[in-house]
Amino acid sequence: MNENEKIIPSDGDVAPVNPKNEEDMAKINYIMYPLGTVGRDFLYNLFNSFLLTYILFTKTLTEAQFASVSIIIIVARIFDAFNDPVMGGIVENTRTRFGKFKPWMLIGAVLTAGVVIATFSTSLQGWSFIAFLAVMYFLFSITFTMNDISYWGMLPSLSRNEHTRNKLTSFAQIFAAAGGGIAGIAIPVFTAGSLTIGGSSVKAYSIIAVVAAVFMVGFQLFTVFGVKEKPLPADLAKAPPLKLKDMFKVLFKNDQLMWCALIMLIFNVATNVVGGGLSMSYIYFEFGYNGILITAFGVFYAITSTAFTLFYPWMAKRLGRDKLITITSLCTIVGYTVMMIAGLVLPHDPWLLKFGVMAFCYGVVGFGQGFYMIMVISIANTVEYNEWKTGKRDEGLIFSLRPFTAKMGSAIMQFIVMLVYLAVGVTAFTNGISDLENAASRGEITDAVKTEGIKQILEGVPEGKKMALLICMCVIPAVGLLVAWTLYRKKCFLNEARHAEIVRLIAERREAESVAETESVAEAAE
Predict the structure, then answer these.
(1) Per the domain annotation, does 3 fall within a domain?
(2) Does 237 reside within a domain?
(3) How many alpha carbons fall within 13 Å on the CB side of residue 371?
(4) Could you count the other beta carbons within 10 Å of the beta carbon of residue 310?
């Protein structure tokens, strides 16, 4: 009998472990834990999704300088990714009366807020800006990791019950989507077009950075002071700290964790090229330099992704994760395929028809984002799998693989976007827009002059370059999701039934150990 067969339940009716106790403790956590991520995701969306746009449209860059920016981001994100397991180990070894997660959450939130304000407020240009960016980006990699690892590492520690964990994860994803969604809607609107704050992208981004910093710290306080945790077990409090080599042994021995991490890595690379800059550049070049278009393009996406998150516990209970992940994969693949066809076939005039069809297709893709949520829960469930195999949970260490895959995926994505931008020659057009934005921020030209100048620049973008951006932003995610879905079907076996059986086996083992300890004490007393 192989390892997989050992954990298949003999019957399909497996009772949850202490469901009443789990639900009682979870009531306050259903609110306070998810609230913490609203500000986090607003700030992260600003830094991760809009930093490159901020640089392209507020800094004048040579191709060598743009390549340097991309290299800095790539190297910093790779460093950040490998720093995650180390931070996960630090969290695991933290012993305070406030727990092992909350201290790092608060420290990371405050420091990250300062880094973001500094990054989006500098007036430096050229190579001096490149040097400044390198320092700030590496600082962000360290400070945000402090917060990110501790925040998501707390999730599996709040409940062992599958239904409770699904609800917590669903609520957290809803609030995360709200934070990221608000950023995705507001930032384009107020940084490009007639509603630009302060009349230029330069001023707008500096103000939005301050707002993001306040959101980050403010919302994290809900989690730090509001979440109720179980007391740290006495045996864990006395356990010696994990050594670095032992941390990596824990990770590599958990085969389900490794496959989940690889799948999430592929997913992050594939889907983030769209939000990482390709879609924004395509829309600006094809339909006009107006942030309202970016917001309108993402409306259906936001609605469908939020709907999936909201109804996930209900769908998971009736369909199961295996069927749901098939549905979400197909939504992503079909959505991007039809979007590409529409962009290539439909005429530019009337532009609203073409834009509307592509936006609707992006809404279909939004439902497919449920793939990510399912994989987050799959990683959370490997905590019990790890406990069943080794006797230790190691939540912080195991959950460090989630941001690891996000950041490593972001690095690879950035490399792909850089290659596409250099091949298309994007900076030849964005530099002109950047010059106009900076001139407007200094009061040298009026808003009308700026707008007319940008319009003339965009009219000079060749159709072939716009077509290349469109194909890349559709083909890359569709192919990536096909690969990720195939790996999940072939390698991941830790579904609801098997996870429930593992939880039952752990409970039985603990009960047997407790009985044995009691008998040993009794014998010693005699």
Answers:
(1) no
(2) no
(3) 33
(4) 15
Quote the tokens at residue 354.
């073409």
Is there a domain that residue 233 lies in? Answer: no
Query: Which amino acid is it at 38?
Result: V
Buried b (16+ CB within 10 A) or exposed e, 282-295: bbbbbbbbbbebbb
Read off the tokens for 29.
Answer: 């956590």
Mean pLDDT of the chain: 84
**100 torsion bin: left (phi>0), alpha (psi -120 to 50), beta (else):** alpha
Cβ–Cβ < 8 Å for 487, 299: no
The domain in which residue 405 lies consists of 13-227+243-525
Provide the H-helix boundaries in 13-161.
19-58, 63-92, 102-119, 126-154
Residue ranges of alpha helices (H) inside 192-290 are: 201-226, 234-237, 244-253, 255-273, 279-287
Q: Nearest-CA neighbor of 169 among 380, 24, 318?
A: 380
Distance between CA atoms of residues 479 and 490, nearest Å: 17
pTM: 0.74
Q: Give the count of domains, the chain.
A: 1
Model pLDDT for residues 404-441, shown as the tens digit of each residue: 787 788 788 888 888 898 889 998 899 999 999 999 98
Judge whether 49 and 410 are in contact, CB under 8 Å: no
